[in-house]
Known about the structure:
The chain is mainly α. The protein has helices at about 5-25, 30-50, 55-70, 75-95, 120-130, 135-150, 155-160, 195-210, 230-245, 255-270, 270-280, 285, 290-305, and strands at about 175, 180-185, 190-195. A hairpin with a 4-residue loop joins strand 1 and strand 2. The termini are far apart.
Amino acid sequence: MNATNNDDDAALVRAYLTHVRVEKRLAERTLALYTLDLEKLVQQAQLAGVALRQVQNAHIRRWVAQMHSGGRSARGIALILSGWRGLYVWLGHQGLIDHNPVQDVRAPKAGKPLPKALGVDESVQLASYEKEADDPRLEARDRCITELLYGCGLRIGELVGLDATASSSARGWIDAQAGEAHVLGKGSKRRSVPVGRAALAALDQWMALRGDWAKDDPALFIGSRGQRLTPQHIRVRLKRRSLLAGLATPVHPHMLRHSFASHVLQSSGDLRAVQELLGHASISTTQVYTRLDFQHLAQVYDAAHPRALTRAGDAGGDGPARTPAVEVAPARKPGR
């Protein structure tokens, strides 16, 4: 493939990325992942000696097989194919191709892992943790971030989009008097979620200190230079907080969203309410938490019932052995 084709392919990718950024309003992190996936597609096409518009179904299937044999996860391949498929759909709409080479190509099947969620006690331990040696402004800010992620089930993008006050240009804000967070979620869909007392108390503490750093940026969560925090900055701070708090597993923001959903479902049993709180477009997305809820109930059963761990071959045991469970505290309502 000559240099002209290389330039043409690069121009097509740039045009498509501009389209999804402007028209679909993709988050910066999603756009960055799309960019990496499309760069990989261009590289594969170059190695095969074809332009992007000349790629065939057989090329895509070969590249998928190579990624799979190279150890790429089924989920990772599926995400890459999604990005490639979107590009070719757009090229078709532009009249630049007459077929979609990614059509009918699927990633290898993989099991669906359960989302990782903290237990209630671990979540409370993380939210309540306080390090006196820290700058009080950092401590107040990070605690408020933790309380909102766990107490409201916000996505990281929704959290960083919050402004300190409501305005016509704000992507999101918190109405402390009403006890509600107004956020802009996926697909530019707005929703309101309740904010609990613990989160509101943490918000009061942070707002009392935020002025020390505040400049022109309207963001609710800012750094010492007065600029809106990035998702990556929050991930680093939350991981640090979880390790200092003594949790066995480093915590990331989405883990607190999973924890929020799991604990609300355990206490209420209301799947539809959890769907609304999370802002899921489909109830099927929310149903994964019923599996988490059953897993929790099975652990409680194994820990509490005298016949739960009876093994086949033991007195009274005529069924398959259950894997012994660790001791689990009874479920209790989050209360946050």
